[in-house]
Structure formats: structure tokens, C-alpha cells
User: Which sequence fits this backbone?
């Protein structure tokens, strides 16, 4: 069972992702205030760097991530904006609790996140691959 008092790992976010995600949080605040608050909290605790200074192994928008979750089986997902989300294709929206938990993580980092049903889960990033425009 995940430790509910575990400290969150340090995260780093590119300036462009930070600015776009802050705008997105403002847009979703009226219909999903709790999710907007979680996203804003993650953005506030992140170290913000210029896009060219973001390490290649950090989860950013468009990254494909290999991770392990509660069951320990490796899984892969791509972090996307809401309009591009497609669960069947493994494209996870940043506006989901899981997507928000991923932003800014690096391989080896773990984070606890709470699903919409109130259950806490732990995910650990094992690999990060960037889309061609960021590689």
C-alpha cells in the first residue's frame, strides 16, 4: 500500500509546457475545480526551465513513458493535451489524475496519485522517450 505521507519527488517542467498547462488549468477550473487545483499545485512546485534546458529524460507534453504501477507490470503511455487523448491508443490526457502525476518526472522517480474513485496508486517511471520535435 502506498505511503500517503510520502514526499513528492522533485520535478522540472519546460517554460512552454508550464505556460500552456497553467492556461489549461484556468480553462478547466469551472468544470473540474479539484483537478485544476492538483494541476496548479504540480505546476507551482516544479522547477521551471527554458525549453532548451529541459533534460531529455524528463516527462513533458508529448513524451512516451514506460512505467510500472501497482501491479508491477511495465506499461507505456503518451502524455497529451485533452483533445488528443485516446485511452485505447495509450494517449493519456494531462487533465486526468494519472496524467497530472506524470508531468516533470524522470526515470527512477515514483509518485503516489489518487484516482477519481479515491484510491491511491503508485507509479514509477522507467523510461521516457521524446517526440521527434523535441528529440
Assistant:
Amino acid at each position: 500500500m502506498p505511503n500517503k505521507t510520502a514526499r513528492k519527488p522533485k520535478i522540472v517542467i519546460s517554460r512552454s509546457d508550464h505556460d500552456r498547462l497553467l492556461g489549461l488549468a484556468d480553462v478547466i477550473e469551472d468544470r473540474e475545480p479539484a483537478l485544476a487545483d492538483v494541476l496548479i499545485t504540480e505546476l507551482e512546485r516544479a522547477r521551471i526551465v527554458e525549453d532548451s534546458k529541459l533534460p531529455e529524460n524528463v516527462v513533458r507534453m508529448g513524451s512516451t513513458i514506460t512505467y510500472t504501477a501497482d501491479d508491477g507490470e511495465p506499461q507505456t503511455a503518451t502524455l497529451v493535451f485533452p483533445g488528443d487523448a485516446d485511452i485505447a491508443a495509450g494517449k493519456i490526457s494531462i487533465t486526468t489524475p494519472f496524467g497530472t502525476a506524470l508531468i516533470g518526472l524522470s526515470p527512477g522517480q515514483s509518485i503516489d496519485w489518487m484516482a477519481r474513485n479515491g484510491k491511491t496508486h503508485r507509479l514509477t517511471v522507467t523510461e521516457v522517450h521524446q517526440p521527434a520535435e523535441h528529440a
The chain has a mean pLDDT of 91.
